Amino acid sequence: MVTLISLITFIVLLALTAFFVATEFAIVKVRSSRINSLASGNNKNAIAAKKVVTHLDEYLAACQLGITITALGIGMVGESTFEFLLHPLFSSIGLSETMIHI
After folding, report:
1. Which terminus of the chain faces fewer neighbouring Cβ atoms within 10 Å, N or C?
2. What is the pTM assigned to this prediction?
3. Cα angle vertex 38, ends 60, 41, to 5°?
4. Is 6 exposed, middle or buried (0-12, 13-18, 19+ CB in 10 A)?
5. Residues in the chain, pLDDT under 50
6. CA-to-CA distance for 38 and 45, rounded, in angstroms?
7. How many domains are contained in the chain?
8. Containing domain of residue 10, as a range?
9. Cα–Cα separations (whole angstroms), residue 7 to 3, 12, 16, 18
């Protein structure tokens, strides 16, 4: 049961990392001229996107913080989870304890 919860936590953290990375790429790749033209036409989504583009540093820092925190969580949860799952497999094929822990 603990392994199932750990595996689900790992998957959620991985999905959150992907979300933060995708958000960062989207913020960096957006064309300001296109956002400005849509915002001048009272497009609510473009107006919100314009706020992000004008405060680019803050939003990129938030994305980087999200990526870092979720990556640390992945390492914390993932190491023990996958060690628990893979240790019996590696032991069964005759690997030494030293090799298993590498």
Report:
1. N
2. 0.79
3. 140
4. middle
5. none
6. 9
7. 1
8. 2-101
9. 6, 9, 14, 17
